[in-house]
Amino acid sequence: MSGPPREGAHPVRRLLASLRVRLRERRLEWLFGRFEATDSWAAAQRLVERHPALTTADADELIGELADAADRIGAHEIADSHRYHQGLLRRCRAIGTAAAFRELTADETDAALVGVANRAVDALRRYEAGGEAADLDAALRDAEEAVERAVAIPTRVGAQNTLGLALIARGDRDGRAEDVRRAVAVLAEAVVATPPGLPERRLFTVNQARALLQWYDIGGDASCLDRALGLLRRAAAGLTPDDSPVRAALLTNLGSALYARFALQGDPDDLEAAVTAFADVPHDEQVSYARARGNLAVALADRYQLTDDEGDLEAAIEAAGQSVELTARASPDAPARRANLAGLLVDRHDRLGSPDDLRAAVTHFTLAAEATPATSPVRAARDGDLGTVLLARYQSTGDLADLDLSVAAHRRAVGAPVHERGGPALRLDQLGTSLRTRARRTDDAEEAARAVAVHDRAVSLTAVSAPERVAALNNLAAALRLRAELADDWQALRRAVESYREALTLVRPGTPRGRAVRANFGTALLDHATVTGDPVELNAAIEELERAVADTEAGSPDLAGRLCNLAHGLRARHDRTGNAEDLASAVDAYRRSCLLAEPGAPEVRAAAARAWGMWACARAEHAEAVEAFGYATEAVERLVRVQSTRAAVDTWLSTLAGIPPHAAHEQAAVDDVRGAVLTLELGRARALSGALERDRADLTRLEAFRPDLAARFRRAARRVSALETAGTDTAEPWPVRTGPSPP
User: Fold this and answer.
1) pTM, two decimal places
2) CB burial class (10 A; 0-12, 13-18, 19+) of residue 608?
3) Residue 258 burial (CB < 10 Å; 0-12/13-18/19+)?
4) How does residue 397 score in pLDDT terms, banded at 50, 70 and 90?
């Protein structure tokens, strides 16, 4: 005989079980409808007490499904009502029905508790204005106590809102994901416990969305971004201009969410919507307005990158400046807003070459880095940005102190905790660039090797599909070129060419980055053709360099360097073929490079003029050589004068050896005998000046034992000074290194 049928196996039993479930659900749905329709809290309490099934997990699941269904058809008010009453029933299950309804109807009679809640608000405001850690600690402590002790719902949800904002602030400061997750949960509780239709519910919803956006920033969970957008769009429904306090915060966070989705997915419609949201934030809410202006600047800067519209860049700088002006210097938001403004000033400098923009950018980045705590999740970014702008100022002025400071800042950035996605690779890439630049200036082959190793690590950490890989490959190739030049490592040069080739396959042609990579690729081909002697490769290199010059805007600060590189290529081909057209074009390119490099790129001018002058000497073109050495004199003199340290001056002075005789010979060849003599004497004077300066530290001790020698020292120093002064209006040739200029 067969055994008894298994439980649930018979079709009739399955049908009966299904009917029982459906009947239970229908009854719970009916009871919930009655509960929502009661006309007083007393009647609602009696209903729950008679029907405790309303507080069960089954009822909670059913109400959640009803709310989700209402949301799906756009009935958001019904969904909000369902979730509010769902929260009340959950509270009944947690603390008992009588206690839950007492919270709804009781007045907060504990004056001391109200004082604690208000102290939390005041402490949070002080922290937002002054950034003192003790104020944030006090806000968190008092808000926690108020939430724990509150009896009346309005007091508790107000304290929950304060606690959520304080947790967001600490998450911003320290990057702790647990703070942000808790902020989301606490603010969600405040939303659910606040009746639909009250303005406070909309404000709490906006703050919950802000916490979700911060969670997305820290962890990259796209579902948090979607939830935030959904909350903000629902909160925006029915919003009027009269709802100014809520409207300002809502539009600011809505713009942030749209911008974050643009950054994730690249849809330009999201960028346009973000710009509109930020621009619509009203002026009368200063805190939200200051934040919105800073965010507007970021969005406009991204639109500038897409459209190359100079108007967007100017509008972004204006908005960023307003954001900084509206933010107290001690505010924890001040560093980010200063860094934002500084980055935009660098963009404008890159476009127009204004030294004032670069100086202001250094100031703002320095203040931003100094004001960012060492434990902050963005400290690495602050130091990285500072190092990069110091490097840019070095490239503009030639002050080696800026170069050393740049390396130091980038080392700090690499050593700091990095929280942003892709951060380690970026920080390594920045450090490698500073090391490479210093290695070029000091002819340090070992430092060039270190730069290659750092760039190699950066490339290895950058995904093949990442947009940053183009820059990483470009910078690795530049370090490899330098390594090849300083150590005769031609395998490194072949690797450089291949790295540039890979970068070109990843970059969009015609963009500023695409033009830069192609220009650098042409220079690497020229280096390689010089080694191999391949005329086909030389012609290909010149074609790339000509295209780079043609594609560069007339006012771009990159044009002088690209003309110098083109001149190197044309000179190499002329020396090989004797082509007169290449000769004329090379001279013209050198001359244009020297003229355009003034005043923003003295190192480029010095490199171009020195190479041109020595080439003219070799061709016995005396007048041309005198002209070229004149440009070199002015450029290197300027480089020497801006140095902040004696060691930096010595670095530039070390390039002097051997050049004055060449320059004097060319001056004599054009019958400028007085100028030739003065050039030789000035070269000697400058060299002696360096020696005297190095020994001056021992003068006090020397005078104590040999006052006669000290007196002779002073007479020599005065003689040097007189010689230098006599030559200030005369061209003084100063050598700089030959070869293609750095990318």
Assistant:
1) 0.66
2) buried
3) buried
4) confident
